[in-house]
Write a structure and sequence with these properties.
Layout: H1 6-22, H2 27-45, H3 50-66, H4 72-107, H5 126-142, H6 151-159, H7 161-164, H8 172-180, H9 187-220, H10 228-259, H11 277-283, H12 286-300, H13 307-325, H14 329-356, H15 358-377, H16 381-391, H17 406-419, H18 425-435, H19 437-460
Helix pairs in contact: 2-6, 3-4, 3-5, 3-6, 4-5, 6-8, 9-10, 9-17, 9-19, 10-15, 10-16, 10-17, 12-13, 13-14, 14-15
Amino acid sequence: MLFHEPFFALFIAPAFLAIFLALNDRGNAKKILLIAASIAFYTWGEPLFVPVVLLSTAFDYFLSRRMENTTPAARKFLVTLGVVSNLGILVFYKYADFIAANLNLALKPLAGAEIPLLQIALPIGVSFVVFEKISYLVDTYRGTSKPAATFKDYTLFVFLFPKLLAGPILKYHEMERQIAEPGKVGAQDLIEGFLRFARGMAKKILLADQLGIFADRVFAADASTLSAGDAVLGLICFSLQIYFDFSAYSDMAIGLARMLGFQLRENFRMPYAARSLTEFWRRWHISLTTWIRDYLYVPLGGSRSGEFRTYANLWICFLASGIWHGASWNFVLWGVYNGLFLTLDRIFLLRWLERAGGFVSVVVTLVIVTFGWAIFRTTSVEQLSAFTAAIFGQSANILDIEHHPEVPLAVTIGLFLSLLPATPLYPKLERWYATSAGLRMAGAVVIVLLWVWACGQALSIPFKPFIYFRF
């Protein structure tokens, strides 16, 4: 079940919200209802994976309680056991066939028999669920947070349905008070939550999905036959699609949670206005980059052990980020690519971009990020090589991809919304919006109208799943 499906947006969500609000003064009853609804929500899409998550959640909770009042050595053993068990789930479901296929390829000259592939369907949201569960165990071990007071509280943290499928990735200590004592939902929560949800739905259906139509055609084509214009336009479309698609899910998750009385962390902060790749990664998928910083980069030593070790740590972290995104050598290469430019930022590129000025630094960063999306979107090194050749006009140029009239408009709107925050005009517009009640009211009306339009579109055309569901 997807947030932007008409059945959910127009029937399930309002009906559930009405029942939830009827229990507004009963915190414990709201918890039980949320747990039941969240498990039902996940069961709708992943019925076979739910028992695995439930058993793993119970194991986490058992380990976290055992960590209290025990020796340091026992605590280290317990947290290691918990982290390994969670990573085991991720490796089994996400990487088993990738590892087996590559072992078969490497050992083919030496062995006749091949390791059979399991052909396991990837559960939606498995990477997000596992990272949240690991953060809980590590924070308990470190003393950053205490174990959940009850199994019910921890189960709600793991299964809370607005963020369950694609984040934001939460940390238990950030949500502990909200989960232990769910706040009473007020009118402001409902209004602001709905507007945030509506904004996300409009971004997904009216922008991301329109951009995705052309991007999908370009990347499904034989790259060696693409014209340079189609290759570049397809890459721009995907760069905009992935931003509006993923940030739309975050908007909808944050909005839904707000309507239920929960405040979730922001996940995007105008990333295409960044003036360096370092800044981009502070603005893009913030919950993942902060997770990697807190649970991988800092434990590896961060920037405390000299320049060479810092560069190595950056590469390790972004290699892990690439692998987290999927079982493919292209994701590994994408991680290495980002690690390279983050290292170059530290060596000289940041200083050069600062001297070059805002316009040049934004353009250079966009070029770096956009080519990174080509690595991300192609499915093999061979396709990436051919696609890169097409961008530079080195292809056969025999394929003519149909351009729908919606594409140029969607690209124009997408570029405008993405790049406006990089201009000197944006801070003035922000201040004007913040101080003008009439302008805020007009903005709310526009969002509601766009939401109505998006609902109409969703009813008339096949819906597309969010891109990050595959991760």
